[in-house]
Amino acid sequence: MSVAPAIRLTDVHKRYEKREVLAGISLDVAPGSRLGLIGPAASGKSVILKLIAGLEQADGGTVTVLDHVLTGKREVQLGVVRRRIGMLFQNYALFDFLTVERNVAFPLEQRGGMTAHAIAERVAERLRAVGLFGSEHKLTAELSGGMKKRVGIARATVADAELVIYDEPTAGLDPVTTQKIYDLLAADHVRTKATVIAVSSDVAALAGFVDEIAFLYHGKIIYRGPAATIADAPDPMVRQFVRGELEGPLQDVRPEAP
Amino acid sequence: MKALRAARDLWIVYVSTIAGVLRRGGARGELVRQLHAIGNKSVLFIVVTLGFIGMVMAYEACSQLSRITGDYSQIGGQFIRLIVSDFGPTLTALMLATRVGAGIAAEIGSMKVTEQIDALRMSGVQPIDYLIVPRFIASVIMTLLLSVIGGLVMFGAGGLTAEHSFGVNPEIFYDFTQVRPRHLILMCIKALAYGAAIPIVAGFCGLRARGSSEGVGWATTAAVIGGSFAVIVLDFIISAAALFVTGGDL
Fold it and tell me: Would you call B9 an interface residue with chain A, using a CB distance cutoff of 8 Å?
């Protein structure tokens, strides 16, 4: 008997005013697997993540996550599914009115069912894992970009979610910090076996973390294949994008004429 | 079409806020924080602005009377009646629409553009419950309290002006006999309606913020304009309804 995918997108369309961002996306992600999404800027990668998290609604098609159809559901019903999902936002989205400790504890406090002592222990364990033990009482404004990212990761993984979404987990970070972050995400995946979907512009680093990579172009997934061989993908557009070549079939990666 | 959609969204925020209040949504500590932010931090602003307005109004009224009859015996009684039934709550609310409305819209708007609202939703929290409900309850309570304080200050400042500029006897000016229970009821209704409208309009504008700091600026401006407009329109509607109910004998 085949296992139902953790994420299933069927012919999903999404439009913002006149611009069609997603033009019939279909995608399955198996439970426990890790999928990376790549593509040119504004190709709809983050929109897909928001659809999976139930933060946006599709205009057409069906989004099914953890056996729940999200399409057309109300906020309260979506909240039930979201509690099983961890998400790292592109710009951290840390609560600036809370300390590091309270930020990480927030999903557990809202979920309920844990004592304050158990939450404090769990938060301390997560902060140790991301190397921020000792910074519990700092406000997020006092942190560097890399530290904020690590707080975001601690918050996304504190509840041991069944599905974890990473939107640009290493954007703006130096190569050493980038590698540290990916090592951290990989160690976490070994521990939780959660399904992971990640978007990143750093294809080389992403390929070292995920099992498969899907390439998004003009609102469609035009390629999906093993992460390890993405640089040698049979599709010339994927090869051009991954290798960062200006000449090739991709039309919108060339610099604009003056 | 956009206006209709905005009206529908405003209605949804209103209904969701009332539902949140009924199911006791929002964190308890947050309510205390908002009572302090909306109430305590606005007292000085309200006292100073309504005090000055009271002085100007009393001076103008005395000045007009001195040219016509020179009889100041009714001025205090009529002044407090007007303050209780209209100027106290309405001017207080207009001041709160600028100070509190702008603050709420900027706070929620910046949370919206930095994805903090989405982060709340990812934790299974209803943003309206968490952000608007405590501000709504605090605003309703504090608008009523500040209307009473502002009205008293306005009356007191008016009395001092009348005494020092026109020699009006304070015992004649501070005449509360003209105030009837219906005026107090009208003040309470207006203060509660304004107190409810300001955070809902401001919260709605904050939740509609898009983009970056420009979006937050738009939300703040829209909240001040929308909140002030709501206060003026509600004043008209409630006053008209009160006149209708009392048969014009207000």
Answer: no
Contact criterion met (CB below 8 Å) for A155 and A161: no
Q: What is the pLDDT of residues B20-79, one digit of tens each?
A: 999 876 667 889 999 999 999 999 999 999 999 999 999 999 999 999 888 888 899 999
What number of C-beta contacts closer than 8 Å exist between A and B? Answer: 54
Name chain B contacts of A111, Cβ cutoff 8 Å.
123-124
Query: Helix, strand or coil for residue A199?
Result: strand
What is the C-alpha to C-alpha distance for residues B232 and B128, in angstroms, rounded to an integer? 25
- Give chain A's end-to-end CA distance (angstroms, integer): 58
Residues from chain B that touch A90, judged by Cβ atoms under 8 A, are 115
Q: How far is B51 from chain A (nearest CA, A)?
A: 35
Chain B CA closest to residue A86:
B122
Q: Mind telling me how many Å the CA of B12 is from chain A's nearest CA?
A: 12
Range A1-82+197-247 has CATH code 3.40.50.720: no
Residue carrying structure tokens 């990640």? A198
Nearest CA in chain A to B117: A93
- pLDDT tens string B137-164: 999 999 999 999 999 999 999 999 999 9
Helix (H) or strand (E) holding A65: strand A60-65
Phi, psi of B181 (to 5 degrees): -55, -35
- pLDDT tens-digit readout, A3-43: 789 999 999 999 988 888 999 999 999 999 999 999 988 88
Estimate to the nearest angstrom the gap between the alpha carbon of A253 and the chain centroid.
23
The structural domains of chain A, with segments of one domain joined by +, span 1-82+197-247
Q: Which two tokens stand for residue B161?
A: 């002006």
Token pair belonging to A66: 């953890």
